[in-house]
Amino acid sequence: MISTVLVEHPWMTTVGLVALVVLGPVVGAWLMPRPQIARVLLALSILAVALLAFVPTGRELAVGCTMEWSVPTLGAVELMGNVILFVPVVLLAGVVTRRPLVMLLAASGASVLVEAVQAFATVLGRSCSSNDWLANTLGACLGAVLAVIALRLARSGRHRHPV
C-alpha cells in the first residue's frame, strides 16, 4: 500500500528526507521544554513503524530472510522509505531521553526484531530483508545526528535567552 504510493510518487521520499533534515533539529529543539508533546509524537512515530511493519498484506511467503546489501539512493523509493521510517523515531527518542546514541542502538536492535518477526510470522505476508535492517539503521543514524543537533540548538538557545 505505502510502497505503491511511493513508487507512483518517487519524489515523496526525497521531499520527506529533506524536510526531516531541515526541520528535524529545529522541531527537536522546540520540543525540549515540551516533553509531553515530544512523548506523544514519539508514540505516534513508533505506532506508524509498527503499523507499516506488521499489518498483514494478504500475501503468503515462505519462512526466511533475503540477505542483500544495497546502499539506499534517492531513486530507490522502498529503501529510502525504510531510511525515513526510523529518522523521526530516533530523533524524538533522542530528544526525550537526551541519549541519541543509545536510541540509535535501540532502534537498530528493534529493526532486527521487526525483520525476525517478518521472517517467521509468514501470516503477515511481509518479507524479511537485510536491506531493510540496513536502511532502518541508516535512518536511525540520521535521526541520532539530528537529535544531537537539536539538543545543541536547545542548549545554545537557553544560554542566549535566560528564563
Automatic annotation (TrEMBL):
Pfam families in UniProt: VanZ (PF04892)
Superkingdom to which the source organism belongs: Bacteria
Transmembrane segments: 12-31, 38-55, 75-94, 101-121, 133-154
Keyword Ligase attributed: no
Keywords, ordered alphabetically: Membrane, Transmembrane, Transmembrane helix
InterPro entries to which the protein is assigned, alphabetical: VanZ-like (IPR006976)
Record-annotated VanZ-like domain positions: 67-149
Protein name: VanZ family protein
